[in-house]
Amino acid sequence: MNKLIRHIILPFLFAAIAMVVSQEAHAQDQAIMVIANDKGAPTTMTMKELKSVMQGEKQRWADGTKVSIAFMKANTSVGSSTAKKIMGMTGDQLNKFWLALVFQGKAKAPVFYGSSSDVENYIAQNPGAIGVVEAGYTLKSGHAVTIDGKKNF
């Protein structure tokens, strides 16, 4: 039995762990870009301003349009990268953060999607909407928001 564990089960277990760690590292490396509806969100922002919006602190744009947020689900590479790069959190922490804000009545819940096209469709239909998609995504409507001088980060 010890040979079975040592020669078959342990290598399999290590390989499985390595795959999970590799997938998590890859998910965190996904380049992202911010997109927005043409009404409300500016075309350029600082990371500090973006973080304020994405944390529900800023709830109206300069023109008075109400902010609405679209995220990719935390189990996607874009969702994981968004949580890490913009919020400094894991995907699970981002979900808990927003759950607490909504429960406390401090902000309206963002919407979560499984694809960039779903995020874009939401943004196209909602003035004031802002969201994050994979870098290089080709927009059919709305605009990309430059963050600290970069379209992708």
Question: What count of domains describes the coordinates?
Answer: 2
The overall strand count is: 6
Radius of gyration: 19 Å
Instruction: Give me the CATH superfamily of the largest domain.
Output: Periplasmic binding protein-like II
Mean pLDDT: 87
CATH C-level class of the largest domain: Alpha Beta
Q: How would you sum up the major sheet?
A: 6 strands, mixed
Major beta sheet, strand line-up: 2-6-1-5-3-4
Strand content: 15-25%
* Morphology: globular
Q: Catalogue the unreliable spans.
A: 9-16, 18-28
Order of SSEs: HEEHEHHEHEE
CATH topology of the largest domain: D-Maltodextrin-Binding Protein, domain 2
Distance between the termini: 50 Å
Fraction of residues in helix: 40-55%
Structural class: alpha/beta
The number of distinct helices, counting runs of at least 4 residues, comes to 5
CATH architecture call of the largest domain: 3-Layer(aba) Sandwich
